[in-house]
Amino acid sequence: YDKLFKEYCICDLSLYKKSQVAMRWQTEGELISGKGQFICGNKICDETTHLRTWEVNFSYMEHYEKKNTLVKLRLCMDCSNKLNYKHKKKEIKRQVSKPKKDKSRHSNKEREKSDNQPTTSVQSEAPVTSKLAIEDNVWNEQLQIEDEKPREDDFEDYLEQLLF
């Protein structure tokens, strides 16, 4: 519950030209209404479309102790420009997962590089390729599951060993 209040902030960008941005935590009413998360986090703006997320350092006093934390600030395009009037803040972007490269492509490229370079020993290349072939065959084979005895048969064998 506390984390929801302290994850997103509400800001006042009225003095943005002086590079003064006032920030505060969300109130319970703002949390419920979505202000600062689904609605622009600027105090006077109610924009709900094209919101961008910014990660901003928030300095505050708690029990006479100065604390710093990184908070998320959701702003519309106009308010984002005001926030970044003099300095570029860190924008949080979703990372697009890159497709993993296939190991066989790397091994083919390495083989091509080695083919282009003159080799002195042909015998040293043969064991390497055979090891790769063996490893590939192990993963391509079907999993062989050993037939396990039913529990009753195991129990009978155990009793026979105890009695004899």
Automatic annotation (TrEMBL):
Residues 88-132 are annotated as: Disordered. InterPro entries: Folate-sensitive_fs_Fra10Ac1. Pfam families: Fra10Ac1. It comes from the Eukaryota. Coiled coil: none annotated. Residues 116-127 have a biased composition (Polar residues). Residues 105-115 have a biased composition (Basic and acidic residues). This is Protein FRA10AC1. The lineage of its organism: Eukaryota, Metazoa, Ecdysozoa, Arthropoda, Hexapoda.
